[in-house]
Amino acid sequence: MRYVGNIYRPPSEAGSLLIQATIGCPHNKCTFCSLYKGVRFRVRPVQEIKEDLLAARDHYGPFVQSLFFPDGNTIIMKTDQLVEIFSYARQLFPHLERITVYGSARFVNKKSLPELTRLREAGLNRIHMGMESGDDATLEKICKGSNSEEIIAAGLKLKQAGIETSEYYLVGIAGRSRWREHALNSARVLSAFSPEFIRLRTFAPEPGTPIQEEISSGSFEYLSPHEALREVRLLIENLHCQNSMVLSDHITNYWNVHGMIPEDREKMLASIDLALEIDESRFRTPDLHHR
Known about the structure:
By secondary structure, the chain is an alpha/beta fold. It has a single domain (13-279), classed as TIM Barrel (Alpha-Beta Barrel). The protein is 38% helix and 15% strand. The chain has helices spanning 46-60, 79-92, 105-108, 113-122, 136-141, 148-161, 179-193, 210-217, 225-237, 265-276; strands at 17-18, 22-23, 42-43, 66-69, 98-102, 124-132, 164-171, 197-202, 244-247, 259-261. The chain has an eight-stranded mixed sheet with strand order 1-4-5-6-7-8-9-10. A two-stranded antiparallel sheet has the order 2-3. α7 (179-193) links the parallel β7 (164-171) and β8 (197-202). α1 runs parallel beside α2 (79-92), α6 (148-161) runs parallel beside α7 and α7 (179-193) packs parallel to α9. The longest helix has 15 residues, at 46-60. The two termini are 23 Å apart. The mean pLDDT is 95.
């Protein structure tokens, strides 16, 4: 297998085979992200991807059960290309249970419902979507490249196509000035399409990013541990999803919040209330954690 640059994958893909299908990110303008800065986005030739899949089969055998195709927004590849590599992967790995990619709302929406259905039939089970926020003012501020209507449209389209959505909420990305709007509008957006997974990530500044410069200048106020937990509480309190799993599966988070909405809501809120009784000095200080 051949890899170009650093390879990033969600924590939930720790046990997955990683085959690089794209290099970099086609958007690459988010003010908080440094993962693909300085990397020119490009799609790897399908033949190269298939050669790497074959090399992986020869090395690991046919028993791979989960496969993730980095880099950022691999969903942007042409549908025929994705169908070809997904179908080939299923031929090589007959025990394959899950194929996943990254795909933000903007790029998911470039696919028609029939195209997404074809991808699901070819083996695509789940898309990891970095929503970050459902608040339009916050999305514009962080240069996310999508708005709340687009996020809802993408979520509903994936639901109709039968593809699971793993949606990411970035705690603290609106700072102190807009944390309430960030939480409430995100709850509204997520409730509109009930993603299978809502994954919490607490914003941790990365050196060299525009938002780090805002923090240094004082124009962006970073949330304290208790403030971040109150934001999460407000989000969960206002989620009206059906059968959505909330997960706190990342080192950046201050507290392990997890459960199903709606049935585990009160349990999660009680857990956060317990965390809020702990003195803030016992929580980690803000520093760099790779996502």
